[in-house]
Amino acid sequence: MEFQLEPYIRSIPDFPKPGIVFRDVTTLLKDPSAMTEAVRRLAAPYREKGIEKVVCIESRGFILGAALAVELHAGFIPVRKAGKLPGAVHREEYSLEYGTDVVEMHQDALRRGEKVLLHDDLLATGGTMSAAIRLVERSGGVIEGISFLIELDFLNGRPRLAPYTPISLIHYAAE
Amino acid sequence: MEFQLEPYIRSIPDFPKPGIVFRDVTTLLKDPSAMTEAVRRLAAPYREKGIEKVVCIESRGFILGAALAVELHAGFIPVRKAGKLPGAVHREEYSLEYGTDVVEMHQDALRRGEKVLLHDDLLATGGTMSAAIRLVERSGGVIEGISFLIELDFLNGRPRLAPYTPISLIHYAAE
Known about the structure:
Two copies of one chain form a homodimer. Chain A is of the alpha/beta class and 175 residues long.
């Protein structure tokens, strides 16, 4: 029987605020077999794509993203919140429920034409990932794929990532 | 000739403030051979230690720590800043240059007696890691090792981690 990842995700009601069901990945990450299986499945579609860099979003995206980079023998590149990266950066804003936030990537992280896989742990509204896409495009990276462990289908983030088609291992159709 | 990791670290003067030389690991992480070699060397002392969990400190500690967990076939456990973890947590304060900060770990992350390797990317004054040690001890974890990619010897953080003896791959004797 196929290994099921879903049972390793813990659902915590009313976090971070009332009415939200938080999908907690820490219960998957602490199980070595589940974590190894998640990395294997995230890597599988990209093994023959010549991925050179895995660009990962701070901070939960760093976890499986780093393991994915090693698995694909690609370099790891962080996209971080404002002011964290020490070198010269590109910046992109994205909108939140109230206001905006900023993510940054080192200007010299990518060489033009490098093949990139983007990764984060969870696709919600897609705001952060769409900003990360713009960062990669500004640096001349070629986006070969976008991967998530979890996708919250009901928040409809997927169209915001067009023309790219993300791959998510676990889907939640409703809250 | 042995693979040298040091040349992959970039030194950035006056970040985050004048007089500080920031040791930037992103230039190592983006090189697949250097990253793989770093993970191999971080894992080497612990391969026969039966490590069950790698406890990693947000957020740069997540990167090599996650790859290390997969390499050792151990579970990954995050130590995070206040308010980020959705379940019931243990909290520990630690002192900063001005004031204090807090780190948290899920109360059910570890089982009593589990063998733990702690990881962060850089040992400076040791404040965050000493708080992480207390979190693991409160949960009954048995600390088998503490590893860092970089240690700033001149900040003298090592004695603060006693009775544990950390292993660091790269040392800077002076600023």
